[in-house]
Write the structure tokens for this entry.
Amino acid sequence: MNETSIIISGFGGQGALFAGQVLAYAALDNDLNVTWIPSYGPEMRGGTAHCTVIISEDAIGSPLVRNPDVAVVLNLPSLDKYEKLTRSGGVLVANSSLINRDLSRNDLRHAYLPANEIAEEIGLARLANMVMLGGMLGLDPILTLEMVKKALDEHMPERHRKTIPMNYEAIERGYSLCAKESASIKS
Amino acid sequence: MAKELLKGNEAFAEAAIRAGCEGFFGYPITPSTEFLEHMARRMPQLGRAFVQAESEVAAINMVYGAACAGKRVMTSSSSPGISLMMEGISYIAGTEVPAVIVNVMRGGPGLGNIAPSQGDYYQMVKGGGHGDYFPIVLAPASVQEAIDFISLAFDLAEKYLNIVYVIADGNMGQMMEPAELPPMRELPKEPPAWAVTGAKGRKPNILSSIYINPPDEEVTNIRLVKRWLEIEKNEIRFSEYLMEDAEFAVIGFGTAGRVATTAIRAARQEGIKVGLFRPITLAPFPKEQVAEISRRVKRILVVEMNSGMMLEDVAAAVQGRVPVEFFGRMGGVTPFPDEILDEIRRVAANKRPVNWNARAEWIARLEQIVAEGK
């Protein structure tokens, strides 16, 4: 069975939940089964916010996993939590703009991306989440870049539509940095 | 209509609207609030009634009144809010008017927390309010099932003049999943004949739960019991997964049943012949189906997000034919599939006689799991 579990985690406001939703929409649009479940409650108010996305060719049982296949961590507390939990051989993408330490394990395919700096170069600081999402796709092509871009185009709320080109750029920048890295890991 | 990515609570609320809900009365409480918020937006747009009451006590009495007027009405809340409604719920049951109540359960007892739980099983399934009455309880395990069962709930409530609970938990209320909403149903043009609508040109209808004279109350009780027996005959619903050749059965409802599905797939990969029986109607409980399973499997594992409540209904149906074991997480903790997989392995390997105190053994294992920080 082909099933991938992804946890995206960061401070509230960093867009972890939205990045997960974009992924979920892309899965839905491509006739895959998907669940998206957020952390909710007190931890969302000021602490970390995370979501679990499961994408599968089959009907999805549990919407939650202890050991995700993929972790996208936007800040240090998220790395501290999910580095330990990501399954052996899994994928981890870390935001080096806010994380100043190396991984303490060596069985993960991983990449560090300066997502905040890249987002600021693009001109919209809050796109760090899209840089990271692109990076994840570069490292582990669960869905293609095109699928995710199409999902953004089709499901972006009207009031944010003018930011679509910048969103695309953010995803592509993250993707190309990691796709290169991924290729070098494989060779 | 195509599948959309729908958020639990909002989808449940929209499903109620599409099913012809004419009035919603409620009070916000996490993790059910988005249900009320969706109703607050949509009901006035459609010219239907929405009231955010001053309390849950008031909300359920508004449901009671509007139900007596023959309207298709409901409320939604979460555990502590449902407790506050219990007096009104009993009055609705005693008056024999239809009402749909959605409970998005959270950790307890007491104020507890806002995390997902199934700890209200007894309260929902066994009545909760005072007196002799029997609510119907539907337990969806996905956003789509919740949408479908909310429609079904209105139909059952009206068919049997009965209370119908749809019980979900915070997981289902908060998650997004592809699902399809039904088309909008037309609202009924005429109120039912029993409704209190002003009595213009006809004899008054009197709706009440007061029967001062005990023999009159008993006649009502007999009617309620006979109605329940009819419901037991007609309305049992359940779902089975990989049960055909199963040597071991996991029995779980709602989120716990769904999480068990993942564990069962993994156990099958290891060669353990295990399947899932998931009751959809917790009341009426599928006793005969559970009894039938107990005649063909070696052992049964009940999985819940509470202290072993459905466990007792399963044990009553199994009548000691095979061992029934239990695994649960409580307090707002959702089990992960790997914990249930460990339990399936244990139950499959452990040839023991019938055990009449599965709860005591489980609590010792749970303390160990908690001590390990899982």
